[in-house]
Design a protein that fits this description.
Distance between the termini of chain A: 14 Å
Helix content of chain A: over 70%
Number of strands of chain A: 2
Shape of chain B: globular
Shape of chain A: flat
Order of helices and strands of chain B: EEEHEEEEHEHHHEHEHEEHH
CATH class of one domain in chain A: Mainly Alpha
CATH architecture of one domain in chain A: Orthogonal Bundle
Helix content of chain B: 25-40%
Bound molecules: adenosine-5'-diphosphate, magnesium ion
CATH superfamily of one domain in chain A: MetI-like
Structural class of chain A: mainly alpha
Radius of gyration of chain A: 29 Å
CATH topology of one domain in chain A: MetI-like fold
Strand order of the largest sheet of chain A: 1-2
Structural class of chain B: alpha/beta
Order of helices and strands of chain A: HHHHHHEEHHHHHH
Oligomer: heterodimer
Strand content of chain B: 25-35%
Chain lengths: 311, 254
């Protein structure tokens, strides 16, 4: 090491012994607070594990039961469809709102205004009762004759109505998230793309959106997690998603608390998976944004391990 | 004398009430280097941006190699071109920005390949070959797979020049290509531009580097207040300016 290159002692330390021991500051208050919190948490966990109200045996029986797993699958499907369709429509709306055409931007602005104003549950019930309003959906000339038509409830179905409701609601929020992302991209990027003659759609897909993703993803992650839990309101449409199914079961057997725990545990698991996925997607879109990309959790662990060995 | 490559004719441009270009005429012949000098705010950037139609002109017209930019003429009417056609015209006009504007999320190679593939529909492999050759030419053959932000400013600007060259444009426009660089990095970028000048590339360069102008320019143009005040060979404009405004400007920057 470099210690043998120092020929003269540093003045202030001239009289000090060869080795100085560092005594870390003692944080008594911090330790006391930590101790109290640990005791409280332990008490809580103990209560959770041993108090009979929780009925863990019931939880165990239902957590992986076929009905519940099926319901989780429905919840996931609703989330996936509403996310994909909602963000597709939202992206279109975002670019409409940003466009120079006053017609397009007004339509987008109005859509966002209206669908952000309607509570999701109101909208869902509305779609559920759609057939009362439009008994038939038809194809034809606008305001003119109809060539082909179908009973709207048969065409859409309850799940379809739920997906439509969730999508339309989600699109309004997604539009603003995407618009924010697009506005965060340096104007010079579009200018450079235009100067290179890159076609308009390609400018958006290849140059603007990937860079906008950095600003879009954190908020979009929030939205998708919110949507996952938000699907629980479609229980009002008697769709067999997680929350509805749990209610059906405890309506039958009266075991309310353990079954709510089943739903809670599943929502926690799914949200955790989404958070992990979000981390990796964000990392992917961070490429080139920094001089050195952030490490994966695995790399971070390994690094901690390796530096421990060295020290 | 070689053919006219860039013809700027009576160009006026206003932003709201502010008239930024007040009747600019400029001729650039094929293979020539024109350097534009002038104080900040005199309309140099605006002029360059009208040449590749990033800004629309209010009056006058611009043609490159005989083709009107941004308009189609029939009789004595000018019809505005669709965006698609303007984009096609721009592939003939390379533009190098003051602050590079490289695409940070794409590798250096992808920065060079993007426009030839998407705008000119070149096969990707062919575009990559051209890109590697150009990177070699600007001395960055080993940087193909890095991301722009991992490069120094000088290296980024050299990539930006290579990116503009990848379309094999008829003319290259530079808007203060070295103004965002640390002084020690200016030389490497100017060397690349000089090299291009020697190989006969038609260029219009806006810069404050008088030494560069003297050495490389065929024509020096001095702009002030939205008009061309004086133009001619460097020996005339730089060493024996006839206009008082040119003299005043040169005494400040020299
Ligand atoms: N998009 C714009 N909107 C309004 N004013 C502008 C715009 N672009 C440039 N200007 C104004 O036009 C004048 C000339 O600008 P510019 O062409 O950038 O000058 P130069 O490049 O010679 O410094 C400046 O006063 C500037 O503020
Ligand atoms: Mg300028």
């Amino acid at each position: 090491m470099s210690s043998d290159t120092i020929t003269e002692p540093v003045p202030q330390l001239a009289e000090a012994p060869a080795e100085l021991k560092v005594v870390p500051a003692r944080h008594y208050a911090r330790w006391a607070a930590g101790g109290i919190v640990i005791v409280l948490v332990a008490q809580f966990i103990h209560g959770l594990a041993t108090n009979p109200v929780w009925e863990w045996n019931v939880f165990r029986d239902y957590f992986l039961s076929e009905t519940i797993v099926q319901a989780v699958w429905v919840t996931l499907q609703l989330t996936a469809y509403a996310t994909v369709l909602g963000f597709l429509l939202g992206t279109v709306l975002a670019f409409m709102r940003l466009s120079r055409s006053p017609v397009l931007s007004t339509v987008a602005r109005t859509y966002i205004w209206i669908f952000r104003s309607i509570p999701m549950i109101v909208q869902l019930v509305f779609w559920f009762n759609l057939s009362a309003l439009y008994e038939e959906l038809g194809v034809g000339i606008p305001f003119g004759p109809v060539f082909w038509s179908v009973d709207s409830n048969a065409l859409i179905g309850t799940i379809g109505a739920a997906v439509i409701g969730l999508t339309l609601h989600q699109a309004a929020y997604a539009a603003e998230i995407v618009r924010g992302g697009v506005l965060s991209v340096d104007h010079g990027q579009l200018e450079a793309a235009a100067a290179l003659g890159i076609p308009r759609l390609r400018q958006i897909r290849r140059i603007v959106l990937p860079q906008a993703m950095r600003a879009i993803l954190p908020t979009a992650g929030n939205e998708i997690i919110g949507l996952l839990k938000g699907t629980s309101v479609v229980y009002v449409m008697s769709i067999g998603e997680l929350f509805y199914q749990v209610q059906v079961i405890y309506g039958r057997n009266g075991r309310v608390i353990p079954l709510l725990l089943v739903a809670t545990a599943w929502y926690v698991v799914l949200t955790s998976l989404l958070s992990v996925a979000q981390y990796y997607v964000e990392r992917r879109y961070a490429r080139g944004a920094d001089r050195t990309p952030p490490p994966t959790p695995l790399q971070r662990l390994r690094r901690r391990f390796v530096t421990k060995e060295i020290s | 004398m070689s053919a006219v490559m860039v013809d700027v004719h009576g160009v006026h441009k206003s932003f709201g009430p502010l008239e930024v270009l007040r009747g600019v005429d400029l001729l650039v012949r094929a293979g020539e280097v024109t350097v534009i000098l002038g104080p900040s705010g005199s309309g140099k950037s605006t002029l360059l941006r009208t040449i590749n139609h990033l800004e629309k002109v209010n009056r006058g017209w611009i043609s490159i190699d005989g083709e009107l930019i941004g308009y189609r003429r029939s009789g004595n009417k000018l019809h505005e071109l669709k965006e698609k056609d303007v984009l096609r015209q721009r592939t003939n006009i390379g533009f190098v920005f003051q602050n590079f504007n490289l695409f940070p999320h794409l590798t250096v190679l992808d920065n060079l390949v993007e426009a030839p593939v998407s705008a000119l529909r070149r096969p990707r492999r062919e575009a990559e070959e051209t890109a590697r050759r150009l990177l070699d030419r600007v001395g960055l053959a080993d940087k193909a797979d890095t991301y722009p932000r991992q490069l120094s400013g000088g290296q980024q600007q050299r990539v930006a020049i290579a990116r503009a060259l990848a379309l094999e444009p008829k003319v290259l426009l530079f808007d203060e290509p070295t103004s965002a660089l640390d002084p020690e990095l200016v030389g490497e970028v100017l060397d690349v531009i000089k090299d291009l000048a020697e190989s006969g590339t038609t260029m219009i360069v806006v810069t404050h580097e008088i030494g560069f102008a003297r050495e490389v320019a065929d024509t020096v143009v001095f702009m002030d207040g939205g008009v061309v005040v004086e133009q001619g060979p460097p020996s005339a404009v730089l060493d024996n300016p006839r206009q008082e405004r040119t003299r005043a400007f040169l005494s400040k920057v020299l």
